[in-house]
Amino acid sequence: MKVMMKRILTTQTVSKGYAIGPAYPVIRRELVIERRTVSPEEKESEIRRFQDAAATAKKQLESIAGDSEIFEAYIQLVQDEALIQGIIKKIRDGSNAEAAVEDTANEFIMIFEMMEDAYMRERAADLKDVKKRLQYALAGIVENPFTELREPAIIIAKELTPSDTADMNFDNVLGFLTELGGVTSHVSIIAKGKGIPCLTGVKDICSLVKAGMMIAMDAGTGEICLDPDKGTIEDYTDREARFEERERVMDEESKKPSVTRDGHSFMLCANVGNIEDIKDALKSRIEGIGLFRSEFVYMMKKDAFPTEEEQFEIYKEAALLMKEKELTIRTLDIGGDKGLDYYEFEKEENPFLGCRAIRLCLNMPEMFKTQLRALLRASVYGNIRIMYPMLISIEELERANALLAECKEELRQQGIAYRDSVEVGMMIETPSSVVMANEFAQRVDFFSIGTNDLTQYLLVVDRGNKNISGLYDSFHPTVLRAISYVINCAHVHGIKVGMCGEFASDEKASLILLGMGLDEFSMSAGSIKDVKYRLRNASYEEAKELAAQAVKKATAEEVKALL
Ligand code: PEP
Ligand code: MG
Predict the structure, then answer these.
(1) Helix, strand, coil percentages in the chain from 3-state DSSP, rounded to 5
(2) Which of 184, 289, 292, 293 to mutate to test the pocket of ligand 1 (most atoms within 8 A of CB)?
(3) How far apart are CA 494 and CA 422, in angstroms?
(4) Which of 217, 393, 433, 530 is 20 to 30 A from residue 20's alpha carbon, by CA?
(5) Phi and psi angles of residue 463, each rounded to the nearest 5 degrees, phi first
(6) Are 371 and 404 in contact (CB under 8 A)?
(7) CA angle 286, 290, 296 (to 5 degrees)
């Protein structure tokens, strides 16, 4: 029976682009976990069976790891003492190795999945992958669901793991459609990196698609066409050709300087969370790093706050990678929705209004000084700028600076090198910092506007609450006027202003921001090309006019009507 053409619309675009081709559904052999009680005499040999399987899994991972940080993390996981000891204990209590691996790994997976932070939640997927590897190794099976992928096809899967992508021949991958996985999942990172169109969160796609069924997908709009007719294929082919032409032009453009067509320069920078992100960002022509979210350095640790030495090594490597380009490292912004495995935050009624970011650091001066010392020591290797988050008062700034001065003095006495002139700036992301921008601008070296928080605090709309997400709108005149005021205050006192909130990468907003005089636009590396294309083709004079009109509008809708 001929299946009728069917259109699906989804919203989770990970990586734009078009793909037309046959479906390759990923079919996995399900492993049935058999459970039995091992006798006391069998226990030691069962433990050895598990240890052999772990060694096999480790060897397999080493052979595919290359310089991938993900597989490095997997190798750490198969050797993780807490995991291994948990499994061995279950075997000693009478479980067979398969059941012990299943139950122990599941306990850890549950802990990861319950974490607030999306990045950490997705690390549960890593452990699931490692668990599967251990179980295949116990069963003596080498699993590769891609042996039949011999022609270009669109990969359809419930979920794709790093192990899957290690087995894949990317020359034959036209696109990805998966039911699970968010924008920070592994398949998303791979798809973005390789420029393969990818949509995640596509409900029921596995049951809707059969092997070989033709699919046309537009990952930009989120449209998927199953079994498209001839006219639809022609339409997609046309759109694909236009998209590729635009991509080609944008690639060319992105190599050119960041300057508008009437000669006004701006800076395009990247937001990053680790060294790998910096390496990726450097593949685009960026002027610097506008935001290094140092909380990831803390969140990757499992047992204790990172030491000065551990942090120093990371910041130094980042500085060396960036050479003379600016590298803005934000001091620890934890609390609110972001937790740590090894530190219990006090329960708060309103965590976003509670002891987060600079407030926590000022309450824990020794912990804060560890980071400041590491930053100061790394500052001699490049152009590090230190940035404080969430300030609301001059007193907080002064207290943070006093701790920084103490650190400098200690380093001086110990004869350890640091850059005395290291620039110190702040995020503008609280209403108070906006109102006090004139005073702050006289006391710091730069501002960076964090519209993610600023929008939520100015409009009193929780940035993560889906029920009211319609109210969260950075085009609201309140937000636009605040931004404009902050930029003016900064420029009166001769300091530069960047923006590292998501709003900086909004293609439409970027013109208004340019017109307001924003000096630096910082965003995830994937968005840089689009914004650069738009700004390079803009006129600064026209953008100024647009900004002047935008700040006079009474509603967000009126602002958007201008664009
Ligand atoms: C912001 O608030 O805009 C920002 C960049 O910081 P974060 O998203 O990390 O809170
Ligand atoms: Mg913020």
Answers:
(1) 50, 15, 35
(2) 293
(3) 17
(4) 530
(5) -70, -15
(6) no
(7) 115
- Predicted pLDDT at 11: 66
pLDDT digits (tens, 9 = 90+) for 432-454: 999 999 999 999 999 999 999 99
**CA distances to 72, 141, 175, 319, 368 from 392, in Å:** 40, 58, 46, 29, 18
Q: Rounded to whole angstroms, how far apart are CA atoms 172 and 174?
A: 6
Per-residue pLDDT for 106 more than 60?
yes
In one-letter notation, the amino acid at residue 505 is S
**How many percent of the chain have pLDDT more than 90?**
65
Cα separation, 42 vs 47, in Å, equals 9
What's the whole-model pTM score?
A: 0.71
DSSP 246: H
- Of 385, 401, 277, 373, nearest to 328 (Cα)? 385
Tell me which of 391, 392, 429 to substitute to probe ligand 1's pocket, judged by most ligand atoms within 8 Å of the beta carbon.
Answer: 429
Tell how far the Cα of 501 is from the centroid of ligand 1, in angstroms. Answer: 5
With a CB cutoff of 8 Å and minimum separation 6, the contacts of 88 are 47, 50, 100
Asked if residues 322 and 290 have their Cβ atoms less than 8 Å apart, the reply is: no
- Please work out, in degrees rounded to the nearest 5, the angle formed at the alpha carbon of residue 375 by the alpha carbons of 295 and 517: 75
Which strand (E) or helix (H) includes residue 21? Answer: strand 18-25
Question: Residue 160, exposed/middle/buried by CB under 10 A (0-12, 13-18, 19+)?
Answer: buried
Concerning whether 186 is annotated as a catalytic residue, the answer is yes
Give the distance (Å) from ligand 2 centre to CA of residue 389: 7
Q: Highest mean pLDDT: which of 301-310, 440-449, 525-534? A: 440-449
Instruction: Decide if 491 is catalytic.
Output: no
